[in-house]
Amino acid sequence: MGAVSILHTVFGIFGDATGLFLFLAPTITFRRILKNKSTEQFSGIPYPMTLLNCLLSAWYGLPFISKNNTLVTVINGTGAVIESIYVLIFILHAPKKEKAKVLGLVTFVLAAFSSVALVSVFALHGKTRRYFCGFAAAIFSVIMYGSPLSIMMTVIRTKSVEYMPFFLSLFVFLCGTSWFVFGLLGNDPFVYVCNGFGSVLGALQLILYAIYRKNKGGQKDDKPAANEGGGSAMEMGFVNGKEKATAEQPQQDNNGV
């Protein structure tokens, strides 16, 4: 049991490290927003939704909800702070219509998280509380991990990895795998099921990258819209609308993620 406990901690720490890289991936996007003092055609939808995932996962990891998941709370609490900063910056620089949309999503996020937290504290106890919070966190984790599916379809259709950065795919795989093993060692299905899903999707992204790595030119008419890929679309540097890409275009904000 001593060795299992040590491995459990090691994989949790590694998961925290790779998770941090994922949360910091959009900094290139926000550097551009701050520089131009405009959100241009960027979509603000992914950030409130990622914030909700972080809040629910951080809540689930608290000791009175589930045992031995403090590292889950650490990284997701950190992620919640980072995503809150992204949301605030976006709101400050977004046009009225997009600002109203993001503010509406933020209201939904706060209401959903508050509802889960209040119900779990005042209406539920023991295993029922853990199951309730675990299901809520797992659902949004699967949604977050599943968002690159449309991007993967675009890669297959265009036979180009222009819009699927290698390092982001790598850290999706590493993060998902780390938390999958962490969940297995801790015998926590709410951690290992959704992260196992993320690990598989990350591996598929890397396989696609290996197949199409020599083609990074892409067909410009096949650019996916930002909302098409959910949260991942924004993390990978897509913009909302028709004509502009962010971090992956060479003329501005070149980035390995």
From TrEMBL:
Question: Where can this protein be found?
Answer: Cell membrane
Kindly give the membrane topology term recorded for this protein. Multi-pass membrane protein
Ranges for region Disordered: 217-236
GO biological process: one example: protein homooligomerization
Q: Where does this protein chiefly localize?
A: membrane
- Membrane-spanning residues where? 6-25, 45-65, 71-91, 103-123, 135-156, 163-184, 190-212
Q: What molecular function does GO assign, one term? A: sugar transmembrane transporter activity
UniProt KW keywords: Cell membrane, Membrane, Repeat, Sugar transport, Transmembrane, Transmembrane helix, Transport
- Organism domain of life: Eukaryota
InterPro entries tied to this protein: SWEET, SWEET_rpt
Does the record carry Transmembrane as a key word? yes
Q: Which GO terms describe its cellular component?
A: plasma membrane
The cross-references to PANTHER family, in alphabetical order and at most eight, read: BIDIRECTIONAL SUGAR TRANSPORTER SWEET1, RAG1-ACTIVATING PROTEIN 1
Outline what the protein does.
Answer: Mediates both low-affinity uptake and efflux of sugar across the membrane.
The record's comment on protein family reads: Belongs to the SWEET sugar transporter family.
Protein name stated in the entry: Bidirectional sugar transporter SWEET
